[in-house]
Amino acid sequence: MQKSQIRLLSELSQNSFATIVEIDHQPSFTLKAAALGLKINKTVCVLHKSNNGPICIKVNTSSFMIRAIDAAKIKVIPQ
Amino acid sequence: MKKIALIGMPNSGKSTFFNSISGASARIANWSGVTVDVESVRTLIFGEIVELIDLPGVYSLHSGSDDEVVVHEFLKNNQIDEIFFILNSTQIDRQIILATELLNMGFNLRILCNMHDEAKKNGIKIHFEKLQNRLQVPIHPISAKFKEGYEFLSKKQELKKTKEKSKKFSESEIKNYVSFPRTLDTSTTEKLDKFFLHPYLGLPIFFITLFFLFQIIYGVAEPIQDLLGGVFDYFGGLLQSNLNPWLPNLLSSFVYDGIYLGITTVLTFVPVIVIFFLMMSFIENSGYLSRAAFVMDRMMEKMGLDGRSFVMILFGFGCNVPALMGTKIMRSKSIRYLSMLIIPFSLCSARLQVFLFFTAIFFEPRIGGLILFLMYIISFLLILFTAIIFKKDQADNESVLIEMPAYQLPTLRQNMLTASHEVKHFLTRASKFILGGVIVVWLLTNVYISPELSVADSIGKALNPIFDPIGINDKLIIALIFGFIAKEIVIGALAVIFSGNDSTLPDLLFNYITWQQAISFMIFTLIYTPCLSTIAVIKNQSKSKKLVLTSLIWSLLLAWVISFVTYQSLLFLY
Lengths: 79, 574
Description:
The complex is a heterodimer.
Chain A: E1 7-8, E2 17-23, H1 27-35, E3 43-49, E4 55-59, E5 62-66, H2 68-71, E6 74-78
Antiparallel strand pairs in A: 1-6, 2-3, 2-6, 3-4, 4-5
Chain B: E1 2-8, H1 14-22, E2 27-29, E3 38-45, E4 48-54, H2 66-77, E5 82-88, H3 92-104, E6 109-114, H4 116-121, E7 125-126, H5 128-135, E8 139-141, E9 178-179, H6 187-196, H7 202-243, H8 249-267, H9 270-286, H10 288-302, H11 307-316, H12 320-326, H13 333-342, H14 349-362, H15 365-390, E10 401-403, H16 412-446, E11 448-450, E12 453-454, H17 455-467, H18 474-485, H19 489-497, H20 505-512, H21 515-527, H22 532-542, H23 545-573
Parallel strand pairs in B: 1-4, 1-5, 5-6, 6-8
Antiparallel strand pairs in B: 2-3, 3-4, 7-9, 11-12
């Protein structure tokens, strides 16, 4: 994996796909995210972005709302 | 009696399943090690009466959220014969992991694959027999929404277990038992989300939806309410004519003016409450609530809150009490406390009945919906204002990860079950206060401390200097005092206070106060402490006397100031 390819989930544009490579967040968030399917090596799709607000993402069969501040703690490689 | 616990992730259809089994007969029970209300029902399962216990929805048993602690403590401290693990079949890939966690803990499990019909429609194929053999537990495809696949409840089928101990189930294994299509058919949800989550249109669409929702409630409920009022008037006339000949005047007045008028006036609002909860359960079951949280999150974040607080505020429009109880899902103390301060400003169904009553008396029907909508706007602005005033340091802002389930068209039965549950809660709560409240109001208005001065009059006169500047006079003050116990009493109290005349309550009120005073009274009722129950819940949830006092003093102060500004401005302008 090339470091230059790594971006933050919050930076992705709408309708783009990426693979999660790192979740640098509090354990409580990481555990809940994992239970929802949001974990390393999973493909994530950005479904909707609001103006400076939260992001709607999809992992496997589930969609979630995540705040940009939290999405900025998830590193991804765009596909 | 055998005990079966119902466990599942949020949005798995667990409540729909529980409601479909329990109907309206669920009860709150005390369980060892559990400090929150957990509902259960005694029902016939596998040919015997068992207790089915509905536990809060959880994503895992280890991340430490309050709900997860409740489930964990419950399972640790109570003897459970079996767990019904309910999962959303369209998300079986991730939800099955929680089931395997429970299996590894040694529980006797039965997996109910809910929304099996949806999964089939989306091309998801679950190989039940293979999965059953792998996990060594019975698995049943069901649809709680349509009450399908419930045959397993009538006769217990034991699974022939293999002797060898199965190895731990891993997430990657699921593909051996479930076939997913290459792309899931979520086009309807995605199409609707393009509209509802639009960066610019999302918010206006949300407010328009709310506006139409309240128009429908007002438009549908009013004629039914009028009809019910007519029926009560008819029977009231019969009661009065039968009581008068053989009961002393005072006793006859107690039975008719005190009990009958007080209770029936409140009962005429039941249709409004039923329609309100039907609409709310439709929105809740449709999946739109999480979209509302999404479009509102940015605004809520600025106030130190999040979209979930907004969802609680929406629930508060039904009743503040469950909304306050719902704040327990927030791990951050500052967000939880702030949410507890703002939720009491949500215009609950009890206050709605007061506004419907006054709107019908003082305003033409064509603007009735608008007046009601304005009250909701004021309620919302007060929420914003209070949040801004009490906004704490954002440093401990907790993370937000909210699931957005696919849209569903809820069935009428599903809505009726959810609504009946809520209406039952409302009536139980209201009945606790109404009868006692109206009797006390009657006593206060009929016990005289001097020939021309009742106890109620003297209280009203004592408080008059405070309320006079906001246009609220003696009789309305008494109704407000009882409204502090529960807003459900306000109209009943007015009916008792104004009784003893030939005219009806609406006519008496119309002649007694001006429309400016009515507006001031409505605003004061909206803002001041909703009821004793909310105070009790704030106290229980926060364990903070300071928060309770802040909530009480702030709401009373705000109520007086805003009523004063509104009333004096209206007097000046008109």
